[in-house]
Amino acid sequence: MKNFTAFGNAGLGTSHIASLGSAISLNEAHALFRKAFELQVNLIDTADTYGSGDAERLIARATQDQELKNYFFIVTKAGFRHLALPAFMSPLNQIGKKVLQKIVPQKNFSPQYLECSLHRSLKRLKTDNVGAFVLHEPLAGDYVPDESWRALERIREKGMAQLTGISSGDEQVVSAGIHSGQVQLVETPVSYCVPGSAVILNLCQQNNIPVIANQVFLPLNVISPAILIKIRQLLPAYGLEDTSLREIMIGYAQRKPAVKCVLFGTRKAAHLAHNAAAVNHSYPEPLFDEINHLIHSNQ
User: Fold this and answer.
1) Domain ranges of the chain
2) 98 three-state secondary structure
3) Class of domain 10-217+257-284
4) Is the pTM of this model over 0.85?
């Protein structure tokens, strides 16, 4: 059984490395994880539904080197229904997943489903335990029985995961998870444009729950081009004229007291290096106040 060390302040998301139409090769995956190792990015975030299991398989194959295999703190998730056919039939999984989710409830957080999903994830990852196992995006309308929270305790007791937690932007579900006593880790969106983000971060800080910040680039997707131009025009006054908005968004998430790790998904080693550097950069507080004013005064 692997003994995990604490994860660092930057994490690599793998939601697209094995998706239809965007999958990377084994050589590209090895280069990506090797770069993560060099940059001391030791957290890998994945899920059983990413590529319908192919992301986990690719992680296992690309980190077979003993140096890499013992380095990464892997977070995997479960809760979305998908097919889990054997590896040689995996191309059918992603097509079948879309069909399956149309004919049955999209999510399943029953204890039996969660434990079975984690067993399958461990098999694909070629390991007997992971750093953390979390519920994948439950919302207030989803049924998460009390037995599911207790299942997380059994998973830790069996040594299948060091930590258990929840990945969600729903403050009601995050609160329920924390008060169950079975959540030691919360993964949640952190950006200017996520309703409830501040409430979840405050709740986690009050309960000493570390947060992995995801969807940190969300403002770039929802803010109008005119506002983005105005934000860029602010940067020279702070000596940041060569800084990208992606770096600023990473800095915004990183400065939150509850945030332990900032997660960014990429398939390219160069992008990983660029983003990892932004996590360790210090940005002036007044800049974030000005950006906040620009965004919310125009909504």
Assistant:
1) 10-217+257-284
2) helix
3) alpha beta
4) yes
